[in-house]
Amino acid sequence: MAGRAMFQKIWDDHVVADLGDNFFLLHIDRHMMHDLGGPAAMRDVHQRGLRIRNPELTFATADHAISSAQGRAGTTETGVRLLDGLRAGARAAGVRMFDVGEPGQGIVHVIGPELGLTLPGVLLVCGDSHTCTQGAMGALAFGIGSTELIHVLATQTLVQPRPKTMRVCFEGAMGPGVTSKDLILHLIGTIGAAGGNGYAVEYAGSAIRNMGIEGRLTICNLSIELGAKMGMVAPDDTTFAYLKERRFAPSGELWDRALGYWRTLTSDVDAEFDREVEIDVGRIAPHVTWGTSPEQVLPIDGVIPDPGAMAQTSKRTAAIAALAYMGLEPGKPIAGTPVDWVFIGSCTNSRISDLRSAAEIARGRRVAPTVRAWVVPGSEAIKRQAEAEGLHRVFTEAGFEWREPGCSMCLAANGETIPAGQRSVSTSNRNFVGRQGPGARTHLASPAMAVAAAIAGHIADVRSLGV
Amino acid sequence: MKPFRVLSATAAPLLSDNIDTDVIIRIEKLVGMTDHSELGRWCFGALRYLPDGSENPEFVLNQSPYRGSEILLAGANFGCGSSREGAVWAMMQIGLKAVLAPSFGEIFYNNCFQNGVLPVALARSAIEEIASELEPDAGRAVVTVDLERQRVVSPRGKEHAFEIPGLRREALLEGLDDIGITLKREAVIAAHQERDRMRRPWVYEIAEVRS
């Protein structure tokens, strides 16, 4: 019998009941709740006459609908109502909440690992598709809908079909100016936004082994944009060193016992995967999207594709619509496209290493006068760390706005939008139609590439700045 | 949840790939929502309306034979993106009861079943063939989705078999709710936790050791 993949080991340990037909009732170890979905879900549980079964395994914070303005003066009325709803619901249910201004508050997928709540081998869910981010800790983590959220609160379990397994091996060393964001964008461009449908993806290979936790979190974050509900990286010494001494991580004898278990979680050498993909990272350039799906992506030295040359009807239809929406012409280089906004933040790229890499390029330079540029740290802890390192001054001196932690312009549910027709280079995860505001045009890129665009005033190759 | 058995209705073709849940319903419509019935007006808002707020005549669901369609023929990865269940609620509000696509965003796919909407995965060639048989001028755009027999019947009567997880099929046919079923399994959940607590105590004993 073949060995088991990490995914299979973690899945097996969470099976409460085999429901047949490849469906399983799974135990949920960690449930993260945010201001957008949390208040209504807790109200629905109550209205159905149910109770929250294990409030000690649920953790809440506000990130989606709160403003990122300094002093949060710009908080929308809806944002305030949701924040109050989350506070009241969490208090009544006995759920631990990390409130605005406290260390601990931040984007759910940023604070889970940061607080040591997200551990190797746990099954973690949240009512947000980018929960897959947290698989980078060696966890099985995925996003759920509203009804599933009520199911988790009431039963601490979920009914799920078992996905197939895929392993993506990123091999080799990244070139200058290339980041984990470019690796995952390249993968999505290569196998498509539906390439991961039905799979749990394990990211492996030398490039992943040599990567820090924060780079791995960025890779796993975009698993959902690959069509995979979950993405993960085997826990290793990098993971354990990151977790040790974290605020809610196990300590003492519990740490030792946990560590012994965590070391058993890696895929067996003879594990078989339903699909394998290998990517040579040495050949990857910095990437930027041109369309309205993350699969519509190019190396920075590429030209905007011609829909007429696309064989598949549905791809051609999508490309024609995307070019019209984005206001771009086929055959022209993507570099040099003028930019109005730059957004550095989101659960993809708002961590301290992202801010450091952005600040390194921004230092001593100026944002182009035609560009408005924001930096939104992913958590209160990251904001404080960045300020302790003086990064906020590097940004503000270069002409960036330094803001409070939250999701901000990634999903634009907080009144923070790009005006219609304006163009943004964003470190977030979605270039969908209207994602950053009705009519907003979004190009996804790494923090380094976002800064390069802010400085140049147009989409630019970060390597031209001598990185 | 209403049972789903056999549906014969007008089908509308929206064959672009990667139609995401942001396009199906914008986030701010969900943030401000007090009741699902408000969402119908905004369903597919990005496609349905022009920048001045008027209807886009190019959008399929704004065209006379397709307005009020109960079945959607879609491209690959339909419902990808955000986990928002509001996408399914919005589609239900404009009367959509089934979506036929080569593949689906997985969270969206799960959310459909939670609400009695049937997502049918069919080969791209089958979807394109069915779409080619729609004859809106002659008023022949009716497709039958038969969950009992697991068949889609095209306007010209060709049958396409489809697969669906048995558990999902039975729940839809009976209109059953996952939460109600799981609540009856309390004993097995409690037993699992008790065993698991011995094996992985750090999962349950969460101490704030440092702040």
Describe the protein in words.
The complex is a heterodimer of chains A (about 475) and B (about 210). Chain A contains 15 helices and 19 strands. Chain A is α/β, with parallel strands linked by helices and about 475 residues long. In chain A, the strands form five sheets. A five-stranded parallel sheet of chain A has the order 5-4-3-6-7. Chain A has a five-stranded parallel sheet with strand order 17-16-15-18-19, with helices on one face. In chain A, strands 11-10-9-12 form a four-stranded parallel sheet. In chain A, a hairpin with a 7-residue loop joins strand 13 (about 285-290) and strand 14. The longest helix of chain A has 17 residues, at about 75-95. The termini of chain A are far apart. In chain A, about 60% of the residues are buried. Helix content of chain B is about 35%, strand content about 15%. In chain B, helix 4 links the parallel strand 2 and strand 3. Chain B starts with 5 loop residues before the first strand and ends in a 7-residue tail after the last helix. Chain B has a seven-stranded mixed sheet with strand order 4-3-2-1-5-6-7. Chain B is of the alpha/beta class and about 210 residues long. Chain B is globular and about 65 Å long. Chain B has helices spanning about 20-25, 25-30, 45-50, 85-95, 105-115, 125-135, 165-175, 180-185, 185-200, 200-205; strands at about 5-15, 70-75, 100, 120, 140-145, 150-155, 160. Chains A and B meet through strand 1, strand 2, helix 5, strand 8 and helix 10 of A and helix 2, helix 5, helix 8, helix 9 and helix 10 of B.
Q: Beta-sheet strand percentage of chain A?
A: 15-25%
Order of helices and strands of chain B: EHHHEHEHEHEEEHHHH
Distance between the termini of chain B: 45 Å
> How many separate helices of chain A?
15
Q: Helix amount of chain B, in percent? A: 25-40%
Oligomer: heterodimer
In one word, what is the shape of chain A?
globular
Strand order of the largest sheet of chain A: 5-4-3-6-7
Number of strands of chain A: 19
Number of strands of chain B: 7
Percent of residues of chain B in beta strands? Answer: 15-25%
